[in-house]
């Protein structure tokens, strides 16, 4: 409901603004990194990719989960500021309004093309000159009518939201999803946007109707299945270590000289991935 959405987004904006006031970027804002207490209070979690900042700097592009990554990071920008978090917050805002993720896909280039389609930015002139100078621009952008061009613009996306939630709501959403990071709204400006002063006003946190406890998001389900799979692999590895002859049997099944995906000796089990170094 609009009052609940407004309450959640206001709390998210307040939390984000607090981080930015302390000169910290979160850099992995997404639904599964947002916790809501039984009383409806919103909390940010997982600051593993966060870092301090003092204005634009030479930072890593390999941050922020793909669906919530802003276009400047997709295009290879290394000089950015806290407004990368605002884009992610805008994606979450749009998800609450529409009921589905705005830019879901499995590769950077496909996510970029979804951004082009949903925002109507199919032509180069729709993009700021600074963005067109970024390293991946020529690789990612294909003009309309050429191979690899973005799909047709989804002209009804913002119009449908405007009809349901009003022009002021869509104005805030568009400002959080501005393609030019230098013109994108800041977290403190989100907090003071007139959207929060319009009727219906935000409800109180304790008035938010919480989902049933057994409900979980898709991403958490995927993570759980991955953990279960890793546990099963470790158990298999432990069993094989207690029975050395199993290695030979497995190698014979695979055939001489064969390799498992990702390299390694024949019959070798996949090893757990090493921990990633913290990005700059």
From TrEMBL:
Residues 1-196 form the Protein kinase domain. Residues 226-235 have a biased composition (Basic and acidic residues). Gene3D superfamilies: Transferase(Phosphotransferase) domain 1. Pfam families: Pkinase (PF00069). Keywords: ATP-binding, Kinase, Nucleotide-binding, Serine/threonine-protein kinase, Transferase. Transmembrane segments: none annotated. GO terms for molecular function: ATP binding; protein serine/threonine kinase activity. One of its GO terms (cellular component) is nucleus. Residues 236-251 have a biased composition (Low complexity). Residues 226-280 are annotated as: Disordered. May form a complex composed of at least the catalytic subunit CRK2 and a cyclin. Belongs to the protein kinase superfamily. CMGC Ser/Thr protein kinase family. CDC2/CDKX subfamily. This is Cyclin-dependent kinase 2 homolog. It comes from Polarella glacialis.
């Amino acid at each position: 409901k609009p009052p609940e959405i407004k309450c959640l987004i206001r709390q998210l904006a307040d939390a984000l603004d607090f981080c930015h006031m302390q000169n910290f970027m979160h850099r992995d804002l997404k639904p599964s990194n947002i916790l809501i207490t039984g009383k409806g209070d919103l909390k940010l979690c997982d600051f593993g990719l966060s870092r301090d900042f003092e204005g634009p700097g030479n930072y890593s592009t390999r941050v922020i989960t793909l669906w919530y990554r802003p276009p400047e990071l997709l295009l290879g920008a290394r000089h950015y500021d806290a407004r990368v978090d605002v884009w992610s917050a805008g994606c979450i805002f749009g998800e609450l309004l529409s009921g589905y993720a705005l830019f879901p896909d499995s590769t950077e280039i496909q996510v970029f093309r979804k951004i082009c389609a949903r925002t109507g930015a199919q032509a180069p002139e729709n993009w700021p000159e600074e963005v067109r100078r970024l390293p991946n621009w020529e690789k990612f952008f294909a003009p309309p009518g050429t191979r690899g061009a973005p799909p047709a613009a989804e002209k009804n996306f913002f119009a449908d939201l405007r009809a349901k939630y009003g022009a002021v709501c869509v104005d805030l959403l568009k400002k959080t999803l501005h393609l030019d990071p230098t013109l994108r709204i800041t977290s403190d400006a989100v907090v003071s946007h007139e959207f929060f002063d319009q009727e219906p006003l935000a409800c109180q946190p304790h008035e938010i109707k919480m989902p049933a406890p057994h409900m979980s998001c898709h991403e958490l389900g995927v993570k759980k299945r991955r953990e279960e799979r890793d546990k099963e692999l470790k158990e298999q590895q432990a069993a094989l270590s207690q029975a050395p002859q199993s290695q030979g049997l497995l190698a014979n099944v695979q055939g001489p000289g064969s390799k498992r995906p990702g390299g390694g000796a024949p019959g070798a089990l996949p090893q757990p991935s090493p921990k990633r170094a913290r990005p700059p």
